[in-house]
## 1
Amino acid sequence: MSDRTTIRRLPDKAVADRDQLNAVLDAGLVAHVAITTDEQPFVIPCGYARDDDRLLLHGSTGSRLFRTLVAGAPTCITVTLLDGLVVARSLFESSMHYRSAMVFGRGAALSGSDKERALDLLSDALLPGRREDARPPTRRELASTTVIAVPIDEWSLKVSNGAPEVVSDDEGWAPWTGIVPLRLQPLEPITHEGGEPPAYARRWQR
């Protein structure tokens, strides 16, 4: 725990369990990666995967984000899973169920077999089962792709999963209250070419 990973707003929602952090990171698909260049902050969405105790990010060698990370700039990476809407008696007390992870650190560019293994892990995390069918990357494609590994050493996790709050100002008001669950759910695959969707694509629905 460091000063910048200490949760100050609603600290009772802080979670210090590493297994729960890993579960959140494994369930997400998109991370928001923050950098600052020329005193201008940027937050950029990026597909990612967790490789044990590090996060893997991949993108174009020409990307400002990846050029900045390769140069050793510090970053803050966030992954948020939105699990539901919390409908309280008042709009003020209404909120959301969420699991939000934050990782601080500096990344390092991968090369050679470590880079190729990382790309395999990214493929397996984002499109499980697809790697065996897809055309392998060419040398040109590999050369134009940067893979960054960020160690998961400094992190925080905040989880909100409680019932709607009832406060003294709610007295005399009795509207419906409750939770509206939300989830990201793959739908029926839409074929572009090649006949019926493969079994692994249908498994993504489950």
Note: The longest helix spans residues 112-126.
## 2
Amino acid sequence: MPQRKTIRIDSLIYDDKKMEACMEEVGRRIRQERMRQGLSLSKLAELSNLSTGCISKSESAQCRISLKALLKIAAALGRPVSAFLEPEGEAPRDRKAGRDKKLTNGERFERITEAAEADAVDFMLDMADGIMRMMDKYN
């Protein structure tokens, strides 16, 4: 079986086509999970405390979903963020557990923030949003 190519986060930052393809995949997975759970756009919006438009635009990749919105959607769907970001068919690996399971960036973020207070998580997300806006400005 051929090995699947993975997309590194740093390559996404500098390649708009890769970023758009990634955002389309994230949106497709959000919609797929929402439909699997039998939720309407408005119900997911209510559960995630986001607007229906935000959910709709995220699913159709009409806008780049923020990390904060993705975290809210993932929580509302009862799924880890990594379920929407991890390349399909790639088994997660945990470096501390026998080095046979590599953690995705989403899983790493979840581990870092699982014991953090809500204010600390909000601060980290605001920092990440600011960094992404600054990178967009200079790219």
Note: The chain has eight helices and no strands.
## 3
Amino acid sequence: MWIFTRYGFYSVVCARQGQGRLDEPINADQMMIRARSRGHLGQLINRFPAELGDCEIRSFANADYPFRIFVAKTTWSHLLMQLNDEISYDNFKSAAAAQQGRAGFDYQDALHQVWAIMAKMSD
């Protein structure tokens, strides 16, 4: 699942068992929240300190998503509900810009690019 939030962009998938090598089976009860920006994971952890405060941001050099945290699937479900409940805006890109501030200009620009690409898919 790809998810764009005010705090950043994440790719969320099941973690793998064992050492996490590609040849190992998935662990359907453990989620791997991946990001291309360490700061995006940091913002998510800061937003949910009770649930994610003990998570270590692990680095995986040369990976397409080099920064990752690992959480139980039940924790991820709980976070998604909280993210949903805090939606109090009528324009996502503007809300993300307000959350990110000047430091998040690249993220804001990427959101506009994704919006434009997806707009081409309109029926």
Note: The beta strands are 2-5, 8-16, 26-35, 58-59, 67-72.
